[in-house]
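Quick look at the format.
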Amino acid sequence: MSRARDLASSGVTSTVLSAKAPLASPDFTGTVDLTGTTVNLDNDQISGDKVSGGTIGAGTFNGTLGTSASGGNSTEFVRNVDVQAMTTSVNTINTSAMTDVATFTYTPKISGTSKVYADLFVHGFTGANRQDTRIIAQVEVTGSGITNRSFNSGEASVFGMYDYGASGMQARFATTILVPRVTSTDTQVITYKLKVQMSVAASSYEIFFSGDANEDQTHIRFMECA
């Protein structure tokens, strides 16, 4: 008996067979359980935004990490890093009042609450043909989305040299000021100002900050965490 006659006698028609044929690009609904099964795919065979959950044990990620992503410790995972430099040197003479030396700004990238850290590398010198070359340095942090803060004020922030022989001196310095962490509640600009003041006013006093676009220039580094 021919195959056609066998199919006809069994009640199987071409319409029924077509319905059973595999689809070239099938759409699955529900849950596909592949427990205990190894699935091998060619490159770029998974697409879409529905991959979630679980752990990727190894591999290389090439792409953009969204701001809602979390790390091993989501409260300390650094999301954004930025560095700004003072490109022009500043020379301040006979400054008996607190005076702005450099201004830096940072705009938070995380739309919700985030913590912003900053460390300020300062390079320069102070000098005078008298016994006192000490200066008071202060970092003022302001913004609409933070609680304004001033780091260092008064005698606790004095650095430099004092010569009891009153013969004059110059003190060179390269130091990092760790600015207190601020908590930002929005993405509004945060302004950081480096301010200095002489310990004792004197016409012979000089304060210099390097900003000549070389590797020793005064600069600030920002780090933002969730």
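Next, a different chain entirely:
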Amino acid sequence: MRRYLLIEEFTCQECHGSGWVQHPLWARYWEANPGGGLTVEEDQTWFREQGEYTPPHLIPEEEPCVECEGAGKIRREVDLVTALVAIGLLYAVPITPLVGEERPASVYVTAQQISAAIAAAVTSIKSYRELSAAYVAQTVWGRVQQPHLPLHSESGQDAWNAFQDALLERTP
């Protein structure tokens, strides 16, 4: 089986691209001494009490970022489908499981496939419920883009169910 991989590169969120982060002990120091202004001896005493003072120097205030290993950017391999979903060319549509029916947890589809399934859902749903095409489309696109949000109405659930059925009929 072939697998296509791409390299994803993005700015490290931990260091915001600088490659450096504040040492956690220095963060505690500044919380304990917000105005600063301590003498060198007082600073040394504070760090000695924390068990982190090796004369004659204090520990550096900044250290290389662990997340990006000091690079400021993170690079990782991602599969092609993940990349296409991330840039908006494919959508991961969650599928509601049904008792006694084997269904995938989600399918990856294009906007055109979603539109075709919405049209089919509108046609099938009109036989038992009067919902406008705009309502069905709005409900489906809202759910596709924010799958974690619940459907609060029976008509919204009917629209989503009809869409899923139509989508699964059209998805290999």
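The chain has a mean pLDDT of 85.

See the schema section for token definitions.
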